[in-house]
Write a structure and sequence with these properties.
Layout lengths: L1 H6 L2 H12 L5 E5 L3 H15 L3 E5 L3 E4 L13 H10 L4 E6 L7 H11 L7 E6 L3 H7 L4 E4 L9 E3 L2 E3 L1
Helix pairs in contact: 2-3, 4-5
């Protein structure tokens, strides 16, 4: 197991976390190979910085990465977790792992609304290894971040704003 942990340098998690925070959309699609190693790195970042970082999984619901014992009540189902994220007025990074299709129409609508979150407070919803059909459905609403990709991307001008 140590060889797996050694294969992903610890600073990679911090670099990916910074790219997530800098994403132009409230919704981020994260492609990665070592999901569990990356989640462990995000857990370490949350504990070190004290930031509100959460992980939602179908079997466990929404829980804090900073404190493994803390679960958000009534957020076992995806729809309830998405509504909680949408209503939160505080900083938060929410990782969603294990999304399965088909999503309900309400869940898909909530994801689109979270992508267009108001700029007043920082909130990122991160889909980890999301199904291809969902990524295609979300299209340009979601920013894309890869764990292997650290080269700078070309900037594009769209609607008077520079995008990566």
């Amino acid at each position: 197991m140590t060889s797996v942990l050694a294969s992903v340098p610890p600073q990679a998690g911090a670099e990916i976390f910074e790219r997530i925070l800098a994403a132009p959309s409230g919704l981020v699609v994260l492609d990665c190979k070592d999901v569990h190693v990356l989640i462990d790195q995000f857990r370490a970042i949350a504990r070190h910085t004290g930031q509100a970082v959460y992980l939602w999984q179908p079997d466990t619901g929404l829980g804090s990465l900073r404190d493994a014992q803390v679960r958000v009540p009534d957020c076992q189902r995806l729809g309830n977790a998405l509504r909680y994220m949408q209503q939160s007025m505080h900083f938060g990074v929410y990782f969603l792992l294990g999304l399965e299709l088909p999503l309900s129409a309400m869940d898909a609508t909530l994801l689109r609304q979270l992508a267009r979150a108001p700029k007043g407070h920082l909130r990122r919803v991160v889909l980890i290894d999301a199904p291809v059909a969902l990524v295609e459905h979300l299209g340009e609403l979601a920013a894309h971040v890869g764990s292997e990709d650290s080269q700078p991307r070309r900037l594009r001008l769209r609607d008077g704003r520079w995008l990566v």
